[in-house]
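Whether sequence alone determines local backbone shape is best considered at the level of individual chains. Part of our work consisted of pairing the sequence of a single chain with a tokenised description of its backbone. This step matters because it turns folding into a mapping between discrete strings. For completeness, the protein is quoted in full, as a sequence line and a line of structure tokens:

_____
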Amino acid sequence: MEAGPCPCSCWRSARSCWRAPGWGPSTIVDSQLSDDLTSIATDLENGLRHYRAGNVDEALWWWQFSYVSSWGNLAGAVLNALLTVVAHDRLDAEFTGDEEAVAAANEMLETGATDPR
């Protein structure tokens, strides 16, 4: 007997989904940038200790491992959060002071003028 479609809307059945129950594409995760940045710094610091001790191969292994298992995902989430804040701020900005330039452009378009002066 096959279980129904997965509640997270993936293509798998509910029995074979690897995601945690209730986790889906529209799930909002509550987090703080400071926590994510601290976790990233902690992961990078572990590799830095090995590097400073002269164990370059060990440092590279730890940086790669921690990137794949932890801080790579966190860094992407931090960038997405910052991009959302910046985009929201720019889209909500009031544009003032351009009325004269818009009026001049409209006048040029109406008269068919080719010289911008």
Remarks:
- Residues 56-91 form the longest helix (36 residues).
- Confidence is low (pLDDT under 50) at residues 9-20.
- Helices lie at 33-52, 56-91, 99-111.
- The chain is about 60% helix and 0% strand.
